[in-house]
Amino acid sequence: MIYIKTPEEIELTRKACDLCSRTLGEVARWVAPGVTTRRLDTIAREFILDNGGKPACLGYHGFPGTLCIEVNETVVHGFPSGYTLKEGDIVGTDCVVELNGFHGDSCYTFAVGEIDPKTERLLDITFESLYVGIEMAVAGNRVGDISNAVQRFCESNGYSVVREMCGHGIGRSMHEDPEVPNYGRRGTGPVLHDGMLICIEPMINLGSKNIVIESNGWECRTRDRKPSAHYEHTILINGDEPEILTTFDYIEAALEQKA
Ligand code: MF3
Ligand code: CO
Predict the structure, then answer these.
(1) Residue 22: predicted pLDDT
(2) Is the pLDDT at 139 greater than 90, yes or no?
(3) Any atom of ligand 1 within 6 Å of the Cβ of 26
(4) Pairing relationship of beta strands 220-222 and 90-99 according to DSSP bridges
(5) What is the mean pLDDT of residues 34-61?
(6) What is the CA(258)–ligand 1 centre distance, in A?
(7) Which chain residues have CB less than 5 Å from ligand 2, an ion?
(8) Residue 94 in contact with ligand 1 by CB distance below 6 A
(9) Which of 82, 146, 176, 212 has the smallest CB count inside 10 Å?
(10) Atom 6 of ligand 1 has which residue's CA nearest to it?
(11) What is the tens place of the pLDDT at every residue in 161-198?
């Protein structure tokens, strides 16, 4: 069941998305060699609570963090831990905020200090693929048009698309219909209508597309242990101009200040 949101619901989601984006902006200030992923998680949790929101992942089906932490070969759903980030790592921080009953969801993969050029290109292409997908998120298109655009862009650049994990609708629940895969055929899947809210989130591997899920049932890693990247925005379907409700502006401002 796909829910079309009212203007009031969209306005509440805008606010949740802004808090989610500002939270990742706060996290961005702290990403550096020597910092534990648990520290990043604490910073995110406190920032959300201080601003009247709820860390939606924390306790979700038992998930133990505010952020999903995705170091190097971790694709999604990594646990915050005592792991200390080191120069050359990449770390994805995936954050969902609930505010006034609605959710905002965004993810950004950071380079920790200098990273090798192959991994840097993986980040660049994955980042760009998110916007390639968003361009297709126009009313009248189908979900498969987004999926196909992301897949073609990533595969033509030599990367592989994780199959088991998808983007999704969002609203009163963190995950709603429709599923938004990062691979698929044009002209297939549900039609996009004005007022739909979806999360587009390419999870793209440097090596093969295969993943393994750890015995804790959550943490998802590449089978070949090569790096994986992940970026995500929450999007409003709005005629032929998709509105990106989350933003990386706060992150980019924080990274510029550090540089
Ligand atoms: N933020 C993830 C997504 O993009 C989901 C988090 S799963 C959770 O869908 F269990 F950690 F909440
Ligand atoms: Co999501």
Answers:
(1) 99
(2) yes
(3) no
(4) unpaired
(5) 98
(6) 28
(7) 105, 199
(8) yes
(9) 82
(10) 57
(11) 999 999 999 999 999 999 999 999 999 999 999 999 99
- Return the ligand 1 atom nearest residue 76 CA: 2
pLDDT of residue 259: 84
Instruction: State mean pLDDT over 91-120.
Output: 98
Question: Is there a contact between 160 and 75 (Cβ–Cβ < 8 Å)?
Answer: no
Question: How does strand 102-111 pair with strand 197-200?
Answer: unpaired
Cα-to-centroid distance, 170 and ligand 1 (Å): 11
CA of 175 to the centre of ligand 2 (A): 7
Confidence at residue 187, expressed as pLDDT on a 0 to 100 scale: 98
pLDDT digits (tens, 9 = 90+) for 121-132: 999 999 999 999
Q: Domains in the chain, please, with CATH?
A: 7-258 (3.90.230.10)
User: What pLDDT is attached to residue 11?
Assistant: 98
Q: Express each pLDDT in 73-95 by its tens digit.
A: 999 999 999 999 999 999 999 99
Q: SS in 3 state form for the chain? A: CCCCCCHHHHHHHHHHHHHHHHHHHHHHHHCCCCCEHHHHHHHHHHHHHHCCCEECCCCHHHCCCCEEEEECCEEECCCCCCCECCCCCEEEEEEEEEECCEEEEEEEEEECCCCCHHHHHHHHHHHHHHHHHHHCCCCCCEHHHHHHHHHHHHHHCCCEECCCCCEEECCCCCCEEEEECCCCCCCCCCECCCCCEEEECCEEECCCCCEEECCCCCCEEECCCCCEEECEEEEECCCCCCEECCCCHHHHHHHHHHC
